[in-house]
Specification:
This protein is of the alpha+beta class and 504 residues long. It contains 19 helices and 15 strands.
Length: 504
């Protein structure tokens, strides 16, 4: 074992020992020893001063929770702010009035049916470094936990009381108030219940982007949804990247279009113009010099500017990433550049699927109509980029009104990375139904071929007039045991030595 691993394990054991002891027995020397390791346990500690961190390490309490045991109950009086130092937990909530908290109860059943009947459906997951109980600490009207949190493994929870929380995280109180104001005033979340709103606020992450930065780039992996709170941004379409994405989506549709004999706008391949200056094609250094000498400096610079097209401008209450999530796209189909300092709230795909998609059909219907409106506008304005016409046709397949959205398959079951993003584009172009038909046809064809081969073998070995009798079986190579193989190996080695001696 490496020395760094041994040192890290020793420091974790020392931190656990110090935080598990009483506050009076924690010496200043031990607190200073565990302080570097203690700071890395959660992102909340990264920017805290040393004095505040020492105060937390001196007065906070560490509690161990066994697997499948409840950390906090829904409806329980909220007295602490919790941080998961080690382990993970799941979040559950019930719509009706929950039962009274049972602090001495045993483990919760692991089966989804029994657990959902007892504490409600699963709404999300908390990993190491995550926290819970912000609403109880910052709100004057909310004094009880709005969800039940169950440990999924042996976990260590750092509990901070309200006085210590206000003394240490006073800045977070103002941020939480702004987040509460944004969720309550946004038209997207008007139909959410108070419990779902609280879970949503705990999942939202505030991000501040500086002027001129491109925090969303076309072609990058899409794993988050962004809600603009303040500021303005510019949506840009990259011609070359859009062509690559379009070609990836229609590549697998050529076979089905030929077999059906039906031609649509999306199934037709876009014919490139015969111009030598094609903005969708990359140019090498030699080609740039050649075109600059032939067409001039102004023409080549105009070509580079044509590679990016201004689509629209977005501002407060706009959503970024809704097209990619609802159409199940692996990468972003536009780039967003900040026109001024921008404040957005980030929501991961998994949390969106667990909190919004499965719990609030009205919010999903509003987002769906917004996706169709965006794509209709872009397909009419950007006719030179066929990607948006293809996406608009796919968006028209949405049902007009549904109680529960079932179309998002990427989160949480499929983690999209840069390696499998291209394959997901091709897979999504067919759609699940068409892909299932093609896969079934291939399996059927393979099975038919195998059966035909078996029939040919039976016919070759069959004797006329004796079809019911047993046919001779072909024997494969002999299978040696371990002892037989060792004996054969020694025999071959001895023969080899004898051959060498005779040669000498």
């Amino acid at each position: 074992m490496a020395a760094a691993d041994v040192f890290g394990r020793v420091m974790l054991e020392l931190m656990e020992h110090v935080l598990s002891s009483s506050s009076e027995s924690r010496s200043q020397e031990n607190i200073e020893k565990i302080l570097p390791m203690f700071r890395t346990r959660t992102p909340l500690f990264y920017n805290l001063s040393t004095d505040i961190l020492v105060d937390i390490a001196k007065n906070a309490n560490l509690r161990k929770i066994k697997r499948d045991h409840v950390i906090v109950w829904q409806g329980q009086e909220g007295r602490h702010f919790g941080i998961i130092i080690k382990g993970s937990a799941s979040i559950h909530a019930r719509k009706d009035l929950p039962r009274g908290p049972q602090q001495d109860s045993g483990p919760i059943p692991r089966s989804n049916k029994e657990r959902s009947a007892l504490v409600g459906p699963n709404l999300g997951r908390l990993s190491a470094g995550s926290s819970f109980g912000e609403m109880v600490m910052t709100s004057d009207h909310q004094s009880r936990y709005n969800s039940t949190i169950i440990a999924e493994e042996l976990s260590q929870i750092l509990l901070i009381d309200k006085e210590l929380y206000l003394r240490s995280f006073g800045v977070n109180n103002l941020e939480w108030q702004r987040k509460t104001q944004f969720v309550n005033q946004s038209p997207l979340f008007q139909s959410l219940t108070p419990a779902i709103k609280n879970l949503l606020m705990e999942s939202l992450k505030l991000i501040e982007i500086q002027f001129g930065d491109r925090f969303v780039k076309q072609g990058n992996v899409c794993n988050s949804l962004y809600f603009i709170c303040q500021g303005w941004g510019k949506v840009i379409a990259e011609v070359r990247t859009s062509m690559i994405q379009y070609e990836a989506m229609i590549a697998s549709k050529k076979v089905t279009d030929k077999s059906s004999g039906r031609r649509t706008v999306c199934s037709e391949r876009v014919g490139h113009s015969c111009k030598k200056l094609d903005p969708s094609r990359p140019l090498s250094v030699i080609e740039r010099r050649r075109h600059r000498q032939q067409y001039g400096y102004v023409a080549i610079e105009t070509l580079f500017r044509q590679r990016e097209t201004h689509v629209t401008t977005i501002g407060p209450n706009d959503v970024i990433g809704d097209i990619e999530i609802f159409l199940d796209l692996p990468t972003y189909c536009t780039t967003v550049e900040c026109l001024e300092n921008l404040q957005v709230y980030e929501l991961s795909k998994y949390n969106f699927f667990q909190i919004i998609t499965q719990r609030c059909a009205k919010t999903c219907n509003i987002l769906q109509r917004g996706v169709q409106t965006k794509l209709r506008f872009r397909s009419q304005r950007l006719k030179d980029i066929p990607l948006y016409s293809l996406l608009y046709e796919r968006s028209l397949m949405f049902p007009k009104d549904r109680k529960k959205i079932q179309g998002i398959s990427a989160p949480p079951f499929q983690i999209i990375t840069k390696r499998n993003a291209a394959s997901v584009w091709t897979k999504n172009a067919l759609g699940s139904n068409k892909l299932g038909k093609i896969t079934g046809a291939l399996v059927k064809q393979t099975t038919t071929s195998a059966e035909t081969a078996d029939d040919n073998k039976k016919t070759a070995f069959s004797i006329p007039g004796k079809s019911d009798e047993k046919q001779p079986e072909t024997k494969g190579p002999k299978q040696y045991t371990v002892e037989e193989f060792r004996a054969l190996k020694k025999k071959m080695q001895a023969q080899g030595k004898c051959a060498l001696r005779s040669w000498d």
